[in-house]
């Protein structure tokens, strides 16, 4: 009997994944900037949360989750840990968390991306799937923000312009 082994090749590096995620974060930041301040914190459609609350959720996930992955801790998610009162404060925290994400992401070894991690003590998936969840969640919430902007008569940024 002959055994055939197929070598798998990596199609994306961790650096490329981080660049992809940060491209989405850049686009979400530009989306935040486009909102009139009052509407950023108050406007909603169909009972959905205002975009500021959606952005705060994203702030509360990425950096803290990557820190937990690196320190192997499973602290619960805290949505009310940061409560901004204006757009400038929200954007400042967004930028700070971008640096936190860069710091902790770059500490994850290639092997650790395949390890299972219990995110926030709730979701048990490989590290790479958790990171893809962060990106997917951001795209989902930014889509809500795009709908809000259009309802306000504001053209959102092009989704493919992530610089």
Would you spell out the secondary-structure blueprint of this structure?
Elements: H1 14-34, H2 37-42, H3 51-71, H4 87-105, E1 116-119, E2 123-126, H5 127-151
Antiparallel strand pairs: 1-2
Helix pairs in contact: 1-4, 1-5, 3-4, 3-5
Annotation keywords:
DinB/YfiT-like; metal-binding; DinB; globular; 5 helices; mainly alpha; metal ion binding
Model description:
A divalent metal cation binds at residue 141. It comes from Chryseobacterium soli. InterPro entries: DinB, DinB/YfiT-like. Belongs to the DinB family. The chain is mainly alpha-helical and 163 residues long. It has one domain (14-151): Four Helix Bundle (Hemerythrin (Met), subunit A) (Up-down Bundle), CATH 1.20.120.450. It has helices at residues 14-34, 37-42, 51-71, 87-105, 127-151; strands spanning 116-119, 123-126. The chain has a two-stranded antiparallel ribbon. The model has no long low-confidence stretch (mean pLDDT 90).
Q: Which structural category fits the helices and strands?
A: mainly alpha
Unreliable spans: none
Total tally of structural domains: 1
Oligomer: single chain
E-strand count: 2
Percent range of helical residues? 55-70%
Strand order of the largest sheet: 1-2
CA radius of gyration is 18 Å
How far the N terminus sits from the C terminus, by CA atoms, comes to 53 Å
Q: What's this model, at a glance?
A:
The protein has about 160 residues and is mainly alpha-helical. It has helices at about 15-35, 35-40, 50-70, 85-105, 125-150, and strands at about 115-120, 125.
């Amino acid at each position: 009997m002959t055994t055939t082994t197929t070598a798998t090749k990596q199609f994306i590096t961790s650096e490329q994944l981080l660049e992809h995620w940060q491209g989405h974060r850049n686009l979400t930041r530009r989306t935040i900037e486009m909102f009139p301040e009052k509407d950023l914190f108050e406007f909603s459609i169909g009972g959905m949360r205002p975009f500021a609350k959606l952005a705060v959720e994203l702030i509360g996930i990425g950096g803290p989750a990557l820190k937990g992955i690196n320190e192997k801790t499973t602290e619960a998610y805290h949505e009310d840990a940061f409560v901004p009162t204006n757009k400038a404060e929200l954007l400042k925290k967004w930028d700070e968390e971008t640096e936190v994400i860069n710091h902790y992401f770059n500490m994850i070894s290639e092997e650790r991306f395949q390890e299972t991690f219990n995110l926030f003590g709730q979701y048990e998936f490989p590290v790479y799937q958790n990171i893809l969840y962060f990106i997917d969640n951001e795209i989902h919430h930014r889509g809500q923000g795009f709908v809000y902007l259009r309802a306000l008569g504001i053209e959102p940024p092009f989704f493919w312009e992530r610089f």
